[in-house]
Specification:
mainly alpha, flat, 1 helix
């Protein structure tokens, strides 16, 4: 299964850096991400969003 079939996938960030995390999303065909946390940030892995 991958995102190309219209599935909704759930993911965890773990401790991947931004580049590795984005590579994982791309490898599995993920083209859109929605952060649905009540507080969309992490004290432990504080990363800025990727530049456009």
């Amino acid at each position: 299964m991958n995102a190309a079939d219209g599935s909704v996938l759930t993911i965890g960030h773990s401790t991947h850096d931004s580049e590795a995390f984005i590579a994982l999303l791309q490898r599995h065909g993920v083209t859109e991400v929605a952060d649905i946390r009540s507080s969309p940030y992490s004290r432990f892995i504080p990363q800025a969003p990727p530049a456009d």
